[in-house]
Amino acid sequence: MxxxxxxxxxxxxxxxxxxxxIAGAMQSLSFPTCVYKPIQTGAVLLNGVKSSPDxxxxxxxxxxxxxxxxxxxxGEESPFVSxxxxxxxxxxxxxxxxxxxxxxxxDCAIIEGGNxxxxxxxxxxxxxxLVRMLNVPLVxxxxxxxxxxxxxxxxxxxxxxxGVNLKGIILNQYDSESENLEEKYFSQIxxxxxxxxxxxxxxxxxxxxxxxxxxxxxxxxxxxxxxxxFGLKIAKLNRGx
Length: 241
Known about the structure:
- There is one protein chain.
- With 241 residues, the chain is α/β, with parallel strands linked by helices.
- The protein has helices at 15-28, 53-61, 79-85, 92-103, 127-134, 149-160, 181-184, 186-194, 213-223, 226-230, 235-239, and strands at residues 2-8, 33-40, 44-46, 49-51, 66-72, 108-112, 120-122, 125-126, 138-142, 166-172, 198-202.
- It has one domain: P-loop containing nucleotide triphosphate hydrolases (Rossmann fold, 3-Layer(aba) Sandwich), CATH 3.40.50.300.
- It is 40% helix and 23% strand.
- A hairpin with a 2-residue loop joins β7 (120-122) and β8.
- α1 packs parallel to α2 (53-61).
- It is globular.
């Protein structure tokens, strides 16, 4: 199966946007795809029931995707703190089991992280530990407008040393013509000082609630290295969809 865990170095990095684009792209390339979010913080109330805004956005991009979130928490804090406030206990084995159930029969499974790769999710467990437990490759979403380059390089070296398969990073809200030279040459600097690949970039869409599925999926296919993310050659990409 084609698996990937998509996380970030901080909250609001653009993970859900990237996940929706990749999931929609894989589905359009004839790979039955599911999206699993083990822990959703910042839940919204719909008719008195907590729901996952991230899964709702992904379903808007492609209603045919299979999606699920196990723990839907009200708080905006780390999953560990938010679960405590909601009087819930996050169980790693439950996450592992529900991931296996959702991904059964799928060609591609995309897991979306919670707040960030280093966020505490349960007793003695961070999101990075969750990646190790699920034993899937990792891609990090980074926003050059929010994350200074020195912090990114330090974080990438740390993650790389922790025994996970870090495939690379995807830049969100990236402006290759930025007057800020650190942002303009962000990918080159990251690669030189961390030896981590930049697998693509996503432009600044502004209010993503207005983005069309066609725009996001097309930009994802054209601007991210999907073959590198999943480690395979995709015939439709090489001859055009």
